Amino acid sequence: RDNYDYANAWYDLGAYRATIGDYDGAIDAYKFVNLIRPDDYIGYANLGDIYGFYLKNYPLAEENFLKAVRKNPAYTYGYSELATLYESSFDNGQKRAEDLFLSGIKSNLQDVYLKVKLAEFYERSGRKSEALNIFREVLSLDPANKSVEAKVWDLSQ
Predict the structure, then answer these.
(1) Is the pLDDT of residue 113 over 80?
(2) Amino acid 6: pLDDT
(3) How far apart are CA 34 and CA 28, in angstroms?
(4) Least buried of 30, 76, 95, 152, by fewest C-beta within 10 Å?
């Protein structure tokens, strides 16, 4: 009450409410964060999570995840979460997920997380050679990555 513009308290309140299943209360808390911190991406990401994975309101989930990654293009987890929704819940979701991964990679050229996620996406989609190429690229950026090294070996067989 004394410091209503303290965003972390609103994030905590939203998380507590979501934990007990009070999604409307969590949404209210996260929307308030967006009012007091319009350039912050976390409130939008949290809304995307609630709408997409709990309430199954995919259009609102997409809207909020897109706002989160626009406000912080380095928020790679947001790209990944939205791609998961695209793949599982949207018409033309495969294409949308691939485009989203490529967009996120373009904004985060040295980040290996999204490249791994794209390679895994290609592997799930049966696009083995594309997956292998991306895994090899990741391995060149992160030669100590044993899990990617194993993927390269598996896909090369």
Answers:
(1) yes
(2) 86
(3) 10
(4) 95
The stretches of the chain forming alpha helices (DSSP H) are 7-19, 23-36, 42-49, 58-71, 76-89, 93-107, 112-124, 128-141, 146-156
User: Averaged over 136-143, what is the pLDDT?
Assistant: 95
pLDDT at 1: 61
Torsion of CA 88, 90, 91, 96, to 10 degrees: -90
Alpha-carbon distance of 7 to 41, in angstroms, equals: 12
Give residue 91's region: left, alpha or beta (phi > 0; psi -120 to 50): beta
**How far apart (Å, rounded) are the C-alpha atoms in residues 38 and 30?**
11
Please tell me the distance from the alpha carbon of residue 122 to that of residue 54, in angstroms, as a whole number: 26
b or e along 26-55 (b: 16 or more beta carbons within 10 Å of the residue's beta carbon)?
A: bbebbbbbbeeeeebbbbbbbbbbbbbeee
Mean pLDDT, the chain, integer:
95
pLDDT score recorded for residue 5: 79
CA 48, 51, 56, 58 torsion-angle sign? negative
pTM for this one? 0.90
Question: Cβ contacts of residue 72 below 8 Å, gap of 6+?
Answer: 41, 78
